[in-house]
# Entry
Amino acid sequence: MKHNYSVENDNLKLIPLEPEHLETVRVWRNELNTRTRFISQNIISEEQQRQWYANYLKKEDDLAFIIVDKDSAKPIGTVSLCSIRPETGEAELGREIIGDVNNRGKGYGASALKLVIDFAFKQLNLDEVYGEVLADNAASIRMLEKCGLTFVEKFEKNNLVLHKMVLKKI
Ligand SMILES: CC(C)(COP(=O)(O)OP(=O)(O)OC[C@H]1O[C@@H](n2cnc3c(N)ncnc32)[C@H](O)[C@@H]1OP(=O)(O)O)[C@@H](O)C(=O)NCCC(=O)NCCS
# Structure
């Protein structure tokens, strides 16, 4: 399943995460205003990133995408479908980053996420996607709402307050 998926709309294309993207993604993820938006906020080393990717390739329940802007043909971000559970029909929308802060708030995040949701519902035949987002991440919550997800519960993990948001296939 890892290497034969690719989805696109008029502006964006989602392609599989490959070794050549790892350093770009690591740099995006390590930016202060990005890593503080995730549950795990540590700086990731090159070695840790390589290890993570090696483990990722063995996993059957996790698909990481690179978001490519079709106009420039450049990677602008990343997004994943994690914890894919065909037995319950659920998966988590996770690890989304629009790398350059100047590209944020322009609709790329929601546009890419809609492609992932479509992929989950139509190609993987799942019927529920959810996101777990820090309660103070207003941009991410707004992006999830724009994609149709709604708040279901507030909970704590690692002393952080999170919101779980869900979208069921109609
Ligand atoms: C979260 C993220 C992926 C969203 O991508 P994006 O391209 O900026 O998202 P969009 O432009 O599609 O939507 C963001 C929405 O939030 C709004 N927004 C941005 N900052 C906001 C703020 N501080 N308060 C309220 N709304 C805010 C934007 O105006 C936009 O809504 P609109 O289209 O109704 O105007 C991006 O901001 C990012 O990479 N953040 C850092 C990493 C991160 O937080 N990842 C998610 C972890 S759960």
User: Anything to note?
Assistant: DSSP finds five helices and eight strands in the chain. Strands lie at 7-8, 12-16, 63-69, 74-85, 90-98, 128-134, 150-157, 160-168. Residues 108-123 form the longest helix (16 residues).
